[in-house]
Amino acid sequence: MSLFQNAPNVLYNYTDQLLDPKYYRAKNLWRRNNIRDDYLASVVIFDDVFIKTGDTPESIAFNYYKQADLGWTIMIVNNITNYHEQWPRTSDALRDYVYTKYENPAAIMMYETTEVTDALNRKIVKAGLRVPSNYQVTYYDGTASAGVTVNPVSPVTYYQYEERLNAEKEKIKLIKPIYIKEFADLYTASLHKGGSLVIGQNKSEIKID
After folding, report:
1. Which of these, 105, 156, 98, 164, lies nearest to 129 by C-alpha position?
2. 23 and 81: one domain?
3. H or E stretch including 86?
4. Segment (H or E) for 124
């Protein structure tokens, strides 16, 4: 099954004639529907999976569903609209990306808190909060009458920041195999519902950059 083949058509009139139009026929890949949202509301039909180096939507679909052409369902369920930006990069690809994006990837991008607890193991400062480099906190732990002042700050480089973003992309949801056929059938049927759509009546309304 191919999502592209089942997508509805979009018709563009590439002439100035309204009574005798000549249309380009293309696939409307922008039409959305509520099938995905309905499925996301039911957490019991998903498995959490971590993408491994070299994985693609097609390879995961083949290993999980025994059908590589169901890779599009993984993109839909995880709301991935830009594969190159939203799919995790390999370590080599990430390095190339970071060194192209930043002049000095090793430079400090921001500072974050480290966790602070008192003598009773009560959390004083939560880890991971963005703060100034000179951030300080004073608290009383029962051992010092004047209180304890600490500077719980850790630097984060541009490279470390991009590594975090990339790692977040590695966890995805997969519809369990027992439900995948129903989802694929419902989604493609709802995409095609309504048939073709005319959005360009003449060539003056069509702009291609």
Report:
1. 156
2. yes
3. helix 83-86
4. strand 123-125
Does 201 score more than 50 pLDDT? no
A 10 A CB-CB count for 173 gives 16
| Residue 115 near residue 125, CB atoms below 8 Å | yes
Closest CA to 76 of 171, 3, 5: 3
Residue with tokens 């309304």: 205
* Per-position b or e across 39-58, b if 16+ CB within 10 A of its CB: beeeeebbeebebeeebebe
21 contacts 206 by C-beta, under 8 angstroms: no
> Whole-angstrom Cα distance, residue 179 to residue 44?
11
pTM: 0.70
Q: Is residue 131 part of a domain?
A: yes
For residue 146, give its domain range: 107-157
Per cent of the chain over pLDDT 70 is 68
AA letter at 176? K
| Confidence band of 146 (pLDDT split at 50, 70, 90) | confident
Tally of structural domains, the chain: 2
Q: How many CB atoms lie within 10 A of CB 76?
A: 20
Q: How many CB atoms lie within 10 A of CB 20?
A: 7
